[in-house]
Each structure stands twice: as C-alpha cells, then as structure tokens.
Amino acid sequence: MWRNTRSGWGIVSIILHWLSAIAIVGLFILGWWMTELDYYDPWYNQAPWIHRSVGVLLLLLTVLRLVWRFIQPTPHDEGGRLEALAAHAGHIALYVLLLTVMVSGYLISTAKGSGIDVFGWFEVPALLHGLPNQASIAGSVHWYSALALVVLAAGHALAAFKHHFIDHHNTLVRMLTPRYSRQVDDTSH
Ligand code: HEM
Hints:
This protein is mostly helical. The chain contains five helices and two strands. The model has no long low-confidence stretch (mean pLDDT 95). Protoporphyrin IX containing FE is lined by residues 17, 20-21, 24-25, 69, 74-75, 91, 94-95, 98, 153, 156-157, 160, 171-172, 174-175.
C-alpha cells in the first residue's frame, strides 16, 4: 500500500509524483508571470518570494523522491523493449532537468550572498556566491532548462495517455491508485 511492488506504485511514490507535477506546472506559470510584473505592482516582491520558497520545498521533495526511488522496487515496464528504453531515458532526463532548474534557481537567488527565506519558516544559506556573472549565467540555465523540462513533461504526459487510451495498459491508473501495489509479487524482493 505505502511501498512500491513490481506490480504498482505505493502511496508514497504516487503522492511524491503528483505533488511535484503540480509544483512544476505552478512554478513555471508563476515564474513566467512574475517576470512581466511592473515595479509598482503589489506582487513585484511577493511573487518571486513564493516562487523561491516553493522551489526550495520542491528541491527537498525531489531529494526525498530520489532516495525513495532507490530504496524501493519499481513496477515492471509495459510495452516493447525500445519503448521501455525510451521511457527510462525520458524519466532520467526529467530528473536531471528538474535538478538543473532548481540548482540554477538557487544560484540566481544567492548570487549576491543573501540566503533564501522559505515562507519565513527557515533560511537556506548562500553557499556559492560572487562567481563571475553568476546571476546572468544561472538565469539563462534556469530559463532554458525550465522550458525543456516543461516540454519533456508534456511529452511524458502524452506518452502516459497513449499507454492508457491506445495500448490499454495500466501505467496511468497505477500512478493514480496504489491498488496494484497490493498484488503479491515475488520479484519485488
Ligand atoms: C509535470 C511534471 C512531471 C514530471 C517531472 C514527471 C516525472 C516523472 C518521472 C521521473 C517518472 C518516473 C518515475 C520513476 O521511475 O522514478 C514518472 C512516472 C509517471 N508519470 Fe510523470 N511526471 C510529470 C507529470 C505527469 C503527468 C501530467 C502525467 C499524466 C498525465 C504523468 C504520468 C506518469 C505515469 C503514468 C508514470 C508511471 C510510469 C510507469 O509506471 O512506468 N506524469 N513521472
């Protein structure tokens, strides 16, 4: 139920997947919108503060997600070998882009030496600052990797719909409900 098996994802993986999907889409929209704001807009400081705070929480969530990913079994692949290979490569690329977006975001925010205040709850210190052109280089990396992440995530969602509606596999349903993870499966050990 909570853990994965070779038949399906457990609740922990399902929650981590959908929380990060919501956060990524939300951060992308917020990030795009906030760069258009006028200096006198009441959201001018508030929106980047929320963007940075949610970004740090997403980074913590992703670290947790990766740890859980490595200590848990993963459900077996659906479809042919080539398709499974493409899915694995796509998933690794999603994780790599996700980390690139978050690390570059951190480097933009801390470029001048100030830490990141996360919703007033705690502060993440600036560990690396004052590098030449840090904010502008990290800014470009942040924008292009965020764009690539969102495009890849859209392709990933399309692939999930193809598995569901065309191939009639249970890939999408098992990412929405833990019921398949309850099936006893010897290969999960
Ligand atoms: C928006 C950002 C999203 C990101 C970054 C993301 C990332 C990932 C990653 C990395 C995996 C692989 C899990 C692993 O093996 O460790 C995965 C699995 C999955 N995702 Fe997403 N995802 C996103 C959105 C979506 C959306 C919108 C859908 C569906 C419409 C979806 C459907 C699925 C399904 C069905 C699986 C399970 C694949 C399987 O069982 O082999 N994802 N996702």
